């Protein structure tokens, strides 16, 4: 009968294997996206719950820095950030207030909500193209703001905001499995990395390239024969809720929106002042090069007028009476469903504070892996793993020529891979080539440690007692423990820093080492003791 107290390490290994098997094959943990972001076959649920990354499933990868220059240590002189932004923008030819970001405490990556104050932590960013650090320095000097330095690039706060908004845009667009992260090269350059499985390059690039600014403007006769005026009456943050794109019965499409209660009265008043809410409503015939229309609402996306529409008599009457502000709902009209979807996505995700720079000079790249190529990578990875197993097994059997020593060694090493696969399936970590390389490294280092244990224990032939076995095993375990600590220390910077594919390799190598030292190596020791000691 098996004594649990003497073999609890083996029992622990079995428990880990059962949990990993459940995570790998249980339907309760299967992905909800139909396998588009993972599964064994793209487009349908596979046999396992493993999720595959871009390299193993196919898709698009975009890597680019952000457009922008930053001034650090800016003295605001008691001005509010919005005042600083307006004053700096007035001194720049190629930028407007929306392209200037003034922050307190931006160097530390945190935006202060305190009262205006001067200090070395304040920064001013300009995220428009064709603005150099020298241009920003000259604009600050002309606006009367002292500063310490100007440089290329944006702040950490802006990069984090871009990552959040791009992830929201990908999610709102229904591109399942897409990820956005910030990566840093060994030279210290910062990039935004976007990966979307099973999507072509043009679709992904179009989605992430646009800043996604959406504003509503009132376009109306200014009076006294002075032409037409354009006033921004609603911005993205003024909406309380945004519906999904829907087709109109008479053609075209629309996005139902609800304006925030705090903004609705002012918007209602601006509609009355501009003449849009006149009796009988308005019929808009807006043309960019002609001033001959009744007042219109302009839908402006990324600085371009995408649609213009008037106001129905019923909506105009409710605004004139003041009833509309109690239920501030209306529709943003577009010419087709595609435009409506773009408006809905941009409103939900928010506007990017800075654009991605795709120019080759900046290091921006776009790559596409076809689904068939991803399938080939999966097949080749499987073959590589099988070859590694056979190579390790053959070497071990050739070394010991004793199945009692070699067979448990191979099984124990493979159990580490099963546990790691179960972990990846359980947390939904997408497997890519770097993770597969980590698995192969785990097999190699794991067998190395098991060989150290076997050599130390079997060094003097037959083992007469448990005490002798335990003494030899402890000596071997100290050696592999020290080697494991060295590996973890060496890999930790790669696991923590945002270095792209190297991060996945480092994470799973460290996990493999920890599983080996804490679970599989001790279990192998118990198995070896039971098979080789005379006094069991």
Summarize the structure.
The protein has helices spanning 8-25, 54-57, 81-90, 133-143, 156-172, 201-209, 264-274, 313-321, 337-349, 371-400, 403-427, 433-457, 466-496, 501-532; strands at 51-52, 59-64, 69-72, 100-103, 123-126, 149-152, 179-184, 190-197, 214-221, 228-234, 239-242, 246-247, 253-259, 296-301, 304-309, 329-334, 365-369, 430-431. It is α+β, with helices and mostly antiparallel strands and 536 residues long. The protein is elongated and about 110 Å long.
Verbal overview:
This protein is α+β, with helices and mostly antiparallel strands and 536 residues long. The chain folds into four domains: 8-53 and 370-532, Multidrug efflux transporter AcrB transmembrane domain (Multidrug efflux transporter AcrB transmembrane fold); 60-64 and 158-206 and 354-366; 69-153; 214-349, Gyrase A, domain 2 (2-Layer Sandwich), CATH 3.30.1360.200. It contains 14 helices and 18 strands. The strands form five sheets. It has a four-stranded antiparallel sheet with strand order 7-8-2-17. It has a four-stranded antiparallel sheet with strand order 4-5-3-6, covered by helices on one side. Strand 12 and strand 13 form a beta hairpin. Helix 1 (8-25) crosses helix 14 (501-532) and helix 12 (433-457) packs antiparallel against helix 13. The radius of gyration is 31 Å and the shape is elongated. It starts with 7 loop residues before the first helix and ends with a helix. The relative contact order is 0.12. The model is unreliable at 33-45 and 106-120 (pLDDT under 50).
